[in-house]
């Protein structure tokens, strides 16, 4: 995903992301027991029945199961989502992680807007918040990379 200094670089395109997810799933099955292949696509749940059945799978992990700390101490909800939740030079990491309003909004999928906010899969997918932010400037906006037609799960 183009982000940071790579923002101006070409992405593989929205349609190709589904192909990537399906290919990763096929390779995972082909090499089962010999090689572990995983992805970090929030939308993996849409093509992978194994992921859909995993307890605790919540799609986008921003401010849930992953985060990042920059060299300047900013705590980010995801390495690809440059929205500071706080700074460890001013507050302890645990406090930032627990109390950040940014984290609270990311963890509350009801705060998502548009198609992601009304999608039947919002709690299990949530779309990629970093992609939404990179494309729209709003990390709660719909994930423009989602390949589901509106009539399937949205609304």
From TrEMBL:
Protein's name in the database: Radical SAM protein with 4Fe4S-binding SPASM domain
InterPro entries (alphabetical): 4Fe4S-binding_SPASM_dom (IPR023885), Aldolase_TIM (IPR013785), Radical_SAM_PqqE_MftC-like (IPR050377), rSAM_sf (IPR058240)
NCBIfam families to which the protein is assigned, alphabetical: rSAM_more_4Fe4S
SUPFAM superfamilies hit by this protein: Radical SAM enzymes (SSF102114)
4Fe4S-binding SPASM domain span: 60-119
Organism from which the protein derives: Pseudosporangium ferrugineum
Superkingdom of this protein's organism: Bacteria
């Amino acid at each position: 995903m183009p982000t940071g200094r790579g923002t101006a670089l070409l992405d593989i395109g929205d349609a190709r992301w589904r192909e990537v997810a399906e290919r990763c799933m096929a390779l995972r099955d082909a090499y089962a027991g010999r090689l572990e292949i995983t992805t970090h696509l929030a939308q993996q749940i849409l093509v992978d029945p194994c992921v859909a059945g995993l307890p605790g799978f919540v799609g986008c992990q921003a401010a849930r199961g992953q985060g990042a700390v920059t060299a300047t101490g900013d705590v980010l909800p995801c390495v690809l989502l440059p929205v500071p939740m706080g700074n460890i030079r001013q507050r302890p990491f645990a406090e930032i992680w627990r109390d950040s309003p940014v984290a609270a909004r990311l963890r509350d999928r009801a705060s998502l807007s548009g198609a992601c906010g009304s999608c039947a899969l919002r709690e299990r997918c949530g779309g990629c918040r970093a992609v939404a932010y990179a494309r729209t400037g709003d990390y709660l906006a719909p994930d423009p990379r989602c390949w589901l037609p509106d009539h399937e799960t949205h609304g």
